[in-house]
Model the fold of this input.
Amino acid sequence: MSATDPAGSTATAPTAGAAAVAAVGGQPSSFGQRGATVWFTGLSGAGKSTVAEAVRQRLAETGRRAYLLDGDRLRAGLNADLGFDPASRCENVRRVAEVARLVADAGLIALVSVIAPYGAGRARARTLHEQDGLAFREVWVSTALSECERRDPKGLYARARSGELAGMTGIDAPYEPPVAADLELPGRLSVHEGAERVLELIEPLTAPSAGVTPGSIGMGMPEGGRSDSGPAVAHDRPVLTNGPNTMVLRPPAEGDAEILQEMLGEPEVARWWGLWDAARVAREMVGSGQGWVIVLDGRVAGWVEASVETDPDYEHVGLDITLARQWRGQGHGPAALTLLMRHFRALGHHRFTIDPAVENVEAIRAYSSLGFAPVGVMRAYERGPDGRWRDGLLMDLLAEDLDGDPKDLAALGSLPT
Done:
């Protein structure tokens, strides 16, 4: 079945085979997620951009990367040369579809908010994605014309009714409602309710851990921790969240190395790290295959790492954490370590170690609050920025009490973040 748009071209409806190709989206990207496009269509004033922005914010809270392609902004830039006659409307949608495809192909979630009045143009956008194996979902924000006119945020309907503005979609220009949208959002829904429904729709397509099972989660590095010769091959790591997503631990993504490099150069952080080459260490962090980026309030706040040591005499998970200056001393470090320990407990690990500098009293107190206890001193294990070698304190936590019952690590999650 096909449809012809006012520009004269024909778009073919997606076949079952094409839909199957895009059923789970493209390959996982360097962002640790699958790219996809969610196309919001509806009348002017229906609430497309408002819901799309709410979805973008929620995705950011869970460490997923999305980009909002708003029709008004695109009209002011990329498509500033186009009018509102039928042919120009079709070209507008074609260009937006091409941009969305590139965004999705790069591994981001493209949130498109464009009226796209003709069914053929929307079908062509879907086909463009599916032929590249990219997921495409059409969301119809079906707010009634009467409600859109009542809202009239830009005053366009009033101008159209007065005869000042011609070619207004829904007044004297057609809008073809979707006949098989992937999701319909009636106008009675709140922004929060609409965003939740969209997130449920796209969760299977874009989840950072899609296709990863506990048995397939790699630990990353060989025995002994990070290699100084360069990054190891990264493995899939699940996204870990604290409570209502106030804290997110996610796999590293493009651009994180630069943020971490700047963080490692902060005097308060470098004081404990003793870094000579922050850029190299940041690259190794991102490529190590055993670390997570800490995200707080949608911002990269630090790095937490775990290396599995398989020495039969002392099997344990070695932990390490770095927080940016503005997040230190607020309980975020213990909370991030708790998330990580919960994860590795589920994988069957029971002993954890961490090794702050002996003089880092602040960190030692924080780790003690989690139940870590000193077990030994490592002499001259780290050289500070002043060139002086410092001792490290090896701290150990066995997640079982003397009777062999696991400690309640979940209770540690109540620590303030």
